What we know:
The structure is a homodimer. The first copy, chain A, is an alpha+beta fold. The first copy, chain A, has a single domain (about 15-105), classed as Alpha-Beta Plaits (2-Layer Sandwich). Chain A has three helices and four strands. Chain A has a four-stranded antiparallel sheet. In chain A, strand 2 (about 50-55) and strand 3 form a beta hairpin. The first copy, chain A, is globular, with a radius of gyration of 14 Å. At the A-B interface, strand 1, strand 2, strand 3 and strand 4 of A face strand 1, strand 2, strand 3 and strand 4 of B.
Amino acid sequence: MSDMDTGDIASTPEPPYYAVVFTSVLRPDHDGYYETAALMAKLVADSPGYLGHESARGADGLGITVAYFTDEAAIKTWRDNAEHAAARARGRAEWYSGFELRISKVERAYGFRRAD
Amino acid sequence: MSDMDTGDIASTPEPPYYAVVFTSVLRPDHDGYYETAALMAKLVADSPGYLGHESARGADGLGITVAYFTDEAAIKTWRDNAEHAAARARGRAEWYSGFELRISKVERAYGFRRAD
């Protein structure tokens, strides 16, 4: 999976659900990367079983995107999206010096939101 | 868990293992945050069952840190570290406008590293 535009903390339901953790390092030359990432962020939101995503990339080029899905079937559906597959191929060929993708099952979660 | 300094893609073993995904938003005033984050990155590396971590924070203040551990016992050991507990308390009181922590079991993983 390619990573996506930055936003807020995802509002996810009670576990269990799935988290796809995509960690990547951008090459210095990555023309078109951010445009494609923004498009993927829009597309995944319409993919069945999508629950939300979070994305951050630091000044050093290391980025982490976590996308949340209801189950493994939802992850497979997004993986098989044709535009997503094309973006992944371009990422591997042009944009990334390396990445790691980890598919995990969220067992517990808790959060904190400041009241003020 | 507080988040940590930025680095490289973590080298993790074959699954299964655990991923603790910590997503946070910093308040505009967060004096001492980065110093504490760097200290936590050093401490966690010595915690039993630690496998590695990755961290990224974008210009908008949203950060994601993922720490990898062998099992739930290792996560509990790090949670119970006294300096880590103090850092978490300070994060909640001073640094974060919000966070979400998700404990997940990594079932599958694959990566790519460019040869050139």
